[in-house]
Write a structure and sequence with these properties.
Layout lengths: L13 E7 L2 E8 L5 E5 L4 E7 L4 H10 L1 H13 L1 H6 L3 H26 L6 E4 L6 E4 L4 E5 L7 H13 L8 H10 L3 H6 L3
Parallel strand pairs: 2-4, 5-7
Antiparallel strand pairs: 1-2, 3-4, 6-7
Helix pairs in contact: 4-5
Amino acid sequence: MRRPGASRRSATVELRELVVDDLSVRLARKRIKNVNLRVKAPDGRVEVSAPLRTPDEFVVAFVREKRSWIEGRRAQIAASPRSAAAEAPPEQVAEWRAVVEACAPALVSAWEPLMGVKAGRLAYRNMTSRWGSCQPATGRICINVRLALYPPECLEYVVVHELCHLRERGHGQRFKDLMDTYLPDWRERKDKLR
């Protein structure tokens, strides 16, 4: 019997490590219907989520069946600029900063009149989980220096994305409509940052 007001989704999730051949797998059992497999950046960690009563043997067989896909995905992650950035020395980060600082202001200046917005101060940081951020109240925009590792259209995508936040704070449909208006291929550009 559930306590009053308790959610069905608040069920305990069982987390543990499972070794499949030589592969360490983080297994999460939860209230779901299907087995899901993910290979996570930046280190290629393998995660499986499975329904509560799924036997270990089934998970092991599932991972073995997907082994070639797992290795391919890990190779993609290892070859990505994101992976290289995690190991970069400070001198390299300084070089990225110089590139982004040289390019971003011109992009902001070009897009502001087209979008009818005015950015505040631009800042540049070596961020691990975001490409940019915006404080609509002050107009301050922060851009990830790791964008120097990607094609130039990715930096432009982040600039337009953050400028859109000066008009719409969230990422709902209105925000997406703005992105579609100003940068119709924004989804393809975003995909290059994965």
